[in-house]
Amino acid sequence: MKIIYISNSRIPTEKANGFQIMKMCEAFSNAGAKVELWIPKRFNRIKEDPFSYYNVGKIFDIKKISVIDTIPLEKFFGSIAGLAESISFSIFVLFHILKREQKNLIYSRDQFICWFLSFFNEKFVYEIHSFPKNFRLYKRLWRKTHCVVAITQGLKSLLIEHGIDSGKILVASDGVDLEFFNSVNQPKEDIRIELNLPAGDFLVGYVGKFKTLGMEKGIKTMISAIPLLGKEIKIVFVGAEESEIKEYKNMANRLNALSQCLIINNQPYLKAVKYMKAMDALVIPFPNAPHYAFYASPLKLFEYMAAGRPIIASDLPALREILNDKNALFFKPEDVDDLARAVKMLKLSQTLCYHLSGQAFSDVKNYTWGARAKKILNFLP
């Protein structure tokens, strides 16, 4: 099978979607498919080769498609600039598709691309990561797509409620590269020295973007919990944009919590993994918003499990699809007191930490990129 994976994304990118796309192209290739990744030829301040940036094997091809790159004009024209870029990319993609000597399966997580292709006689699969605001506008997409890959059961349920045939929907959660995580095998104490982290404190970590789709991801809840914790507990945030660091430091300062709070900017993937493994516990503090409650299958969830550290997570349905009371400790979303309770519970019980992290590491073996790719390929028509 030949798969053309189309993504209107700047790759490499600091965003998690670029990493997920590259890992899936690699996994599809390892599973026996011949893969081409088509991306727009856009301005990119990251000059590194995508394969080395994401630590992905060069076992598939990347094809850069010409595009009218209006994205740099977004600050002047807003969403119109993004729409113009999407339209131009779709047109150029269609031109390349029509030049093919034979039809291939088209795979994409870009809603607009799939909607555009639905007007042509093309076999495509749509991987959905969030529920569209204007579902009816994309009615044609749901009718024409050969199948839908949903990253959560919650997304599948919503699609069924809106009339999509359940038989054409596959739930496939995101995944992790276990071999890469296992290759980072230094003792926690040595990693802390390398990263210049406090050696004797109980470190609670968050690693990842601070906001998604303009929505806060619960960082403020974590900072608000610091005054309720003992001085020997510190919270380490890794992944802030430069423009965000001041905002969150100011909040911590207002709460007299800055001395227990480390805010670190976005890091290369290897270093991000080391930060996870340097922690005593890791937190997914998502608020109770529909996107996080029902649609999100965050990469950090599987990465935390693979890191072998106990997880504290907001008690949300999407996270409960993977986590349970045997492999994670839950707290009420946006409840500062309940989060502090969970942190202190782990601080007081090494046995609890051991059992939660051990079960999570065992469970995550079912969620590798390779397993996900095989599941999808087996489902495809």
TrEMBL record:
Entry superkingdom: Bacteria
Q: Which residues form the Glycosyl transferase family domain?
A: 188-353
Q: Which residues form the signal peptide?
A: none
Q: Which SUPFAM superfamilies match?
A: UDP-Glycosyltransferase/glycogen phosphorylase (SSF53756)
Which GO terms fall under molecular function for this chain's record?
glycosyltransferase activity
Could you tell me which InterPro entries the record lists for this protein?
Glyco_trans_1, Glyco_trans_4-like_N
In Swiss-Prot or TrEMBL terms, this protein is called: Glycosyl transferase group 1
Q: Which organism is it from?
A: Candidatus Shapirobacteria bacterium GW2011_GWE1_38_92
